[in-house]
Structure to design on (153 residues):
């Protein structure tokens, strides 16, 4: 009687397949993580730009100054009427939030959109001659002081 060889894979073939799959997964992971991080930062920058445009629109529509207060420590900001405690938006971007950012900062940290939509100094009400830069991770959202134009990445 002839010996019949059993159908199937040897242990060496299975181990080799698992090792190759592990190596391919590791390469894929190292390529995917930076892309996901970039997409998260880009999405956060787009949200910040939209909120700044919203603040500007509120100031023009209500004909009242709207303050944008950026808190670097909390990685968030508040959009509210300057002279009252009426808050329109408060958003946080820290590691505990949906966006999971490492950094959010602005220079200056507080600025106001006046009733004409311009970015002005919160104390003197003089138009900000330089640009306001809101740094979102590695992206930057710029508010042009003289016009109030919000430039998103």
């Amino acid at each position: 009687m002839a010996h019949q060889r059993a159908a199937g894979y040897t242990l060496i073939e299975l181990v080799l397949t698992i090792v190759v799959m592990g190596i391919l997964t590791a390469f894929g992971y190292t390529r995917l993580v930076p892309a996901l991080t970039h997409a998260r930062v880009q999405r956060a920058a787009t949200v910040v730009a939209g909120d700044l445009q919203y603040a500007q629109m509120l100031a023009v529509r209500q004909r009242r100054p709207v303050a944008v207060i950026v808190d670097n420590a909390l990685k968030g900001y508040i959009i509210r009427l300057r002279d009252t405690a009426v808050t329109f938006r408060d958003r946080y971007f820290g590691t505990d939030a949906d966006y999971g950012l490492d950094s959010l900062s602005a220079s200056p940290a507080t600025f106001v959109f006046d009733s004409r939509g311009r970015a002005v100094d919160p104390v003197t009400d003089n138009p900000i001659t330089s640009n306001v830069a809101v740094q979102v991770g590695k992206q930057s959202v710029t508010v042009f002081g003289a016009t109030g134009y919000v430039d998103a990445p």
Remarks:
- The chain has a mean pLDDT of 87.
